[in-house]
């Protein structure tokens, strides 16, 4: 269950089926699991997905009142959220937003 094919299948399942929820058995692969894929696809998926969700939350909460009072500030705040979203997805192997 730790092979790359299974991990790829689960990522495709989670992306293609909006009703799918975690946890899914053997996903992500536990550390040092036998027959594990050389790249832990589950951790990569969770890091990217977590950063996307956090970025959406950040953008939704970015000074909702400043859109009418200062559109420039609102734009900067939303761009800051997008920058953090991309940076988190690229720089973390485990989602920084899980507790």
Descriptive tags:
60% helix; mainly alpha; 99 residues; disordered C terminus
Question: Can you characterise this structure?
Answer:
This protein is 60% helix and 0% strand. It has 99 residues and is mostly helical. Helix 2 (41-61) packs antiparallel against helix 4. The chain is elongated. Residues 93-99 have low confidence and may be disordered.
Briefly characterize the structure.
The protein has 99 residues and is mostly helical.
Taking the alpha carbons of the first and last residues, their distance comes to 26 Å
Number of helices: 4
Structural class: mainly alpha
Mean pLDDT across the residues is: 81
Low-confidence segments, given as residue ranges, are 93-99
| Broad shape | elongated
Major sheet: none
The strand count comes to: 0
Strand content: under 5%
- The ordered H/E elements are HHHH
Oligomer description: single chain
User: Which value, in Å, is the CA radius of gyration?
Assistant: 17 Å
Fraction in helix: 55-70%
């Amino acid at each position: 269950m730790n092979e790359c094919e299974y991990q790829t299948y689960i990522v495709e399942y989670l992306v293609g089926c909006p009703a799918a929820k975690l946890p899914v058995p053997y996903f992500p692969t536990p550390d040092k699991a036998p027959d594990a894929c050389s790249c832990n696809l589950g951790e990569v998926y969770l890091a990217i997905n977590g950063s996307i969700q956090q970025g959406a939350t950040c953008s939704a909460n970015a000074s909702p009142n400043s859109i009418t009072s200062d559109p420039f500030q609102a734009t900067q705040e939303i761009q800051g959220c997008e920058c953090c979203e991309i940076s988190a997805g690229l720089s973390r192997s485990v989602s920084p937003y899980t507790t």
